[in-house]
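pinging the channel bc i need a second pair of eyes. not urgent but kinda urgent?? the chain im working w is below, pasted from the shared doc
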Amino acid sequence: MDEIYRKALIEKSCLSKRGDMMKQHKQAFTLVEIMLVVIIIGALAAMVIPRLSGRSEQAKVAAAQADINSHLATALKLYELDNGNFPTTAQGLEALMSKSATNPVPANWNGPYIERKPVDPWSRPYIYLSPGAHRSDYDLYSKGKDTNKDDDDVTNWQ
């Protein structure tokens, strides 16, 4: 009986040593596993990054269009409803933030119609002309990313 008991203890000891060795072996990643993960991440990045690279410029153009065709247009229409005309070119968009002292002085100014100075997504002020050269009421536009070219302008007449 002692002999059987001793053999059982020896086998149990061997099994636990083998299990410990297996645990020790599985605690770290192999070089091949790490390289495989790096290759997969690199392949995913190579597919995703080109798709996202032009999106920031598209987002800026969309934000400028929303400002020109919606936010500022609404503020200008409210100003016109209150005062009977749009601010002049000399008064500019500043007339939407504070009552202008230049002629024609708005008699029923009920603003501010906007909360902060309107700047385009490229951190430049919007260009406002009233009466407009392209529209009878007003022209409102941004020169876009490149101030020298006209093909990237964001306007309210196109």
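so The helical segments are 2-25, 31-52, 55-83. and The two ends are 100 Å apart (CA to CA). — does that match what u expected or am i reading it wrong
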